[in-house]
Amino acid sequence: MKKHGILNRHLSGALAELGHGDGVLVCDVGMPIPGGPRVVDLAFRAGVPSFAEVLEGLLDELVVEGATAASEVREANPAAAELLAGHFPGLGLVPHERLKELSAGARLVVRTGEARPYANVLLRCGVFF
Fold it and tell me: Which of 11, 29, 76, 121 could form a disulfide with 40 if both were Cys (CB 3.0 to 4.6 A apart)?
């Protein structure tokens, strides 16, 4: 058994399969999940695990070269907006409907238990060299 890092075998395996440019949607329980991408649903109950916890764990495991979120996050969920701005100074903001369209191209969807609106981000994988 792994001692450190992500223990969920489905998530750990999915992350190992990602390559440069692949998209990873990290989303709250209200985000419509597109058909097509692999889905790892971590939601246990409302708020567990939180968007912040899942995002922090993923950022420990992934190289991210870009991120996109819904512009509505600034008004509707300032805590998530602050979290995202702190991690991604070049965060791209698009209308929520556009984020849903872009999500269809993701290779992986990680659903959190977050129950606050617009706690969603589409990550674009980078490379470590």
Answer: 11
Span 67-84, pLDDT tens digits? 999 999 999 999 999 999
Q: How many Cα neighbours within 13 Å face the side chain of 32?
A: 11
User: What pTM, to 2 d.p., does this model score?
Assistant: 0.95
Q: Is residue 92 a contact partner of residue 67, using CB atoms and an 8 Å limit?
A: yes
Per the residue annotation, which of 4, 10, 20, 87 is the catalytic one? 20
Which residues on adjacent β-strands are paired with residue 64?
A: 125
**Distance separating alpha carbons of residues 97 and 82, to the nearest angstrom:** 21
Q: Is the pLDDT of residue 38 over 80?
A: yes
Report whether 113 contacts 46 (CB < 8 A): yes
Q: Within 13 Å of residue 36, how many CA atoms lie on the same side as its CB?
A: 12
10 in catalytic set: no
Residue 58: helix, strand or coil by DSSP? helix
24-28-29-31 Cα dihedral, nearest 10 degrees: -70
